[in-house]
Design goal:
It contains 4 helices and 2 strands.
Length: 80
């Protein structure tokens, strides 16, 4: 289990192909399903965490993505 806080904006920026803020649609930021899956694996601090593909498929904006990624980590282990 990771103890290093994850800066979600920096993590997302590694996969985004254009600028973004919380209201940016995922596709406008260049984030597709493989990118989202990689982010989820990178962000999850519990190695046994299950990644719910149905929930991931319902994400529309960067803000929704951040909220979903925070759910994969115990409180206080992510920033931004």
């Amino acid at each position: 289990m990771s103890t290093i806080p994850v800066d979600l904006d920096s993590a997302i920026a590694k996969y985004a192909t254009s600028g973004f803020d919380d209201s940016t649609p995922l596709l406008d930021a260049g984030l597709e399903s493989l990118s989202l899956l990689r982010l989820a694996v990178e962000t999850a601090t519990d190695t046994d965490a299950e990644i719910d593909a149905t929930s991931m498929a319902g994400l529309c904006t960067v803000g929704e993505l951040k909220a979903w990624l925070r759910e994969l980590s115990p409180a206080g282990e992510t920033t931004s």
